[in-house]
Sequence to fold (497 residues):
Amino acid sequence: MKKKQYKGHGEVIFLEIDGLPDGAKKIIPNSSMITKGGLIVGQSETSGNHHCVEMVEGVEFYERDGVLYMKNTKPTKAFCSLDRARHPDVELEPKVWKIKIQKEFDLLERVRRNVAD
Amino acid sequence: MITKLTKEQEAKIPEFINKWVDKASEPIDVEKCNKAVKNIYKDMGQKEPIVIYGRSPLETSYLAWLYLIDHNTGSQLRSQLDSQLDSQLYSQLYSQLYSQLYSQLDSQLDSQLGSQLRSQLRSQLDSQLDSQLDPLSTDQQCELIKELLPHFKEQLQLIQSCFYVTTWWSAWAGFYEFGDYIGVKYDKQKYNLFKDFCEQVHFIIPFEGICFISDKPRVINWNDKGQLHSETYKAIEYEDTYGWTCLNGVKVPEKLVATPAHELTLDYYKELESADHRIEFVAKYGVERMKSLGTVIDTYENYKGHEYWDRYIFGKSKYELIDMRKVYNDDREAIFLGMVHQGNGMYIMECVGSGVTTIKQALENRIEEDLTEYECADFH
Fold:
């Protein structure tokens, strides 16, 4: 059986899914969500080197229960907003993707939290 | 039309890159700088400005802030200056030259130096009001806040919106200078105006009739990959000691740079919230030293020939699950996933918490998804 794909760009993981979940709402990005022509999908608090997805024609973002989804009918890519050498670009073929941030356990705060750059 | 570089011209490219990278820390020649600034003001149709110098961007911002407080307001020229520089030159130097020369200069001068300076300065100016008011009693704060804060904030916001780091243009200046060397024809007057300005001005806050300019950094330390880097002190330092610490292009806490490797502790590792900072910690502390403190529970080496090897890039990431409980006072959650960072090739260890006994479980725990139906197609 053919496996589905997942791709990683730093702490951001793109998981191929069959379709958008019911009730997913389309996101209309505002300017604070966009940098260098891409939607910020992984904030980098310390360096400002955000993980972004290029917003080309055919790329739409959705949200449900705090989880981000992307439906792209044309190829796009994940890239770093400042230092592209830190994480080379990752191509994202036309699919529906669930976008997640990897978690880690914070030993000081005793909670699971998003991995932060 | 020039369509191909000669071997001799191509061999000169590194010389131009080094020249413009070196210029980033070359002291300002005040006479030349005054002239360049006045010329560009004239070109914008503005009257000759008074030029005030600060030793660093932070000091320069304070000077401009004081000026604005004293004068109530100032008419800023940032966007006009930006368009003016933009309109100076435009040439069709072919794409090979763009990737060989401009992208190298841009990645060092703007992506590294310029972007770090912008974010450093913005956050410092943001916290400035708070830190100035902290030492005052609550009553004193109330009085001050009532009277001055809205006014101070307005001026500070103006500074934040109109300071101008020109490193992006410096990279272009290097590009255009090489174009001049290989025989590209420019409007000489515009070319000289642009080049003279980029050679001298690194940071400017331009207003009508007055502008504030910072001296360039006294020291910039790069590693051999062209990243800001110093293992002993600040990677960037200005004359008034303003600056910041970097390891391999990542802005890191000063403590991480200042503490000798043998004095670094795992308690400090716990305090580091950023994955990038932790990567630099492990590199300095020593990967083997760090791993030797724990016990490897599962390793990628157990999966040679297994379907997971390619499917979850076990071989590429060199995953190891490491029990670090004994060095964390028997904290049951201290189970770490060690791996090679797929972006920069450095080693990183991240805590996955208790209840994880295999690498696959650790990956699923981090993504919070069952990966049985998945394979990794790309990871950087």
